[in-house]
Amino acid sequence: MAIAAQGLHQTAPFGRGPDAVEKTIRQLGYVQIDTISVVERAHHHVLHSRVPGYQPRVLDRLLKRGRIFEYWAHAAAFLPIEDFRFARPRMERFRNSQERWMRSRNRDLVNAVLGRIRDEGPLMSRDFEDPRESKSGWWDWKPAKGALEQLFMEGELMVIARDGFQKTYDLTERVLPATINTKLPTMAEYAEHLVERTLQSHGCAQLPTFTHLRRDVPLRKAVAETLERRVDAGLITRLKLEDGQTWFVQADRWEARLPAPRHPSVRPLSPFDNTVIHRERGQRLFNFDYTIECYVPEPKRKYGYFCLPLLFGDAFVGRVDAKAHRSEKRLELRHLHLDVPADDDLLDALARGINEFAAFNSCDEVTVARVTPSRLKKVVQKSLQRVGTSHSPDSVGEAE
Q: Region 88-115: what's the mean pLDDT?
């Protein structure tokens, strides 16, 4: 149920092309944006995992056409345009200085930046001068950049395009389609939205998942009350497991017959994929303890800097720390770790998935540095050679 809700049970659950990308974002509720580029960035990776032949430029076109918008979910994300009104509570908190992490508190500067965009049209951060003589580092935003982000978080500006991670901003009133409902939701409406979106995108969920990283106590109370009402009305089924866990699922989905997951490849998922972003959920639902290790001190890493979960059917079978060496067009498997016995079917599926992932990262060579269990290294290399269709026989070897 969870795999199907995430669009990972079939090869092309939402179809192909731009419409499929938009459908995917709507089904998932959001796609997280991340800057780490060890392999293709998270937002593109998540969509590639669900839309065959996905091209990153499609996401840019959807943004420019107002089919999706950029804002904050539990992190920076692309969201369905129709969900704009449910971003407004956070926007209001920024406007009222209720958020801890304000981008700029210089209202004169904020108003001046807003005035320039109103008069001149869309602008980027680089269109504003930096008056400072020295900087502390790449993370040290110039004042105008902080003002742009403050206006963005307040909802006065929207991102209309990206050049890498350089954003172009314009007035929300000029960007947002006129048909979009912008009315600030009540607490009850917001809670209902979270319940609906969570069960739609995850299939089944425990109470903490509905308000992931939302510390608003009244909102958490409203979500719990919404669940109770829907359980009483027979719209949601409450599942109580023998070990004390409680899960919620839409009643009609619980009664429906779902096809078994069928996908010919093992899929490396992004560490920021919606399926694995909730660590406790992964432990309880899939018996898969996963955490990204780029934030873990190197001596304490077990699997590697940017280890990707490996999904096969409805089970997680391991993880791989991968790096795309783009100038060499080479995907390096720094550490492939398999948690389950590796039979021929798994090895063939793994090879297909890795080769597909290499092509997605514009790599035509795969090298293998380390495999756990170590006895499987040669077997994995041979599988990659045998199954690969877009790579030459000599393209798979040992990393130096």
A: 90
Given a cut of 70, whether residue 132 has pLDDT beyond it is no
The answer, yes or no, to whether residue 59 has pLDDT greater than 70, is yes
Please give the average per-residue pLDDT across 230-238, as a whole number. 97
pLDDT tens figures, 184-211: 999 999 999 999 999 999 999 999 999 9
CATH of 267-398 given 3.40.50, 3.40.630, 3.30.1340, 3.30.70:
3.40.630
Distance CA 389, CA 364 (A): 10
Nearest partner of 95 among 149, 169, 151, judged by Cα: 151
Long-range Cβ contacts of 387-396 (<8 Å, 24+ apart): 387/348, 387/351, 387/352, 387/355, 388/351, 388/355, 389/355, 390/355, 390/358, 390/359, 390/364, 391/355, 391/358, 391/364, 391/365, 391/366, 392/364, 395/364, 395/365, 395/366, 396/365, 396/366, 396/367, 396/368
Q: Report the C-alpha gap between 103 and 81 in whole angstroms.
A: 24
The type of residue at 351 is A
DSSP three-state, residue 334? strand
**CATH code of the domain occupying 187-255:** 1.10.10.10
